[in-house]
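Quick one:
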Amino acid sequence: MKNYLSDGNVIDVPAPEGGAKSGAFAQIGSLFGCYVTSAKEGELVGLKRNGKYDVPFTGNAVSVGAKLYWKAADKAFTGAATDNTLVGIAVSASADSRIEIVLVPSVV
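Output:
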């Protein structure tokens, strides 16, 4: 395939104002993922769009298989859909403000 570039799991994006921190999650336009490394504002940085992560969680308890949403204002994941963006599925029950999530690559 002459036009194949990569599997698309990591997309290079410009780091936002203030820079990017390795392990932080971000929504950039219709992309959502986790920064692979740290970078200064404007530098290219990898954004991993899939995978399993242990992340901060807010809101009511959820169980395995629940849809999880990105609450941009709190930079945390939640089970509440209202005003939030669907980004993954819980692969553990929520406990002590943490949860394990599998990101589901999609157009957000």
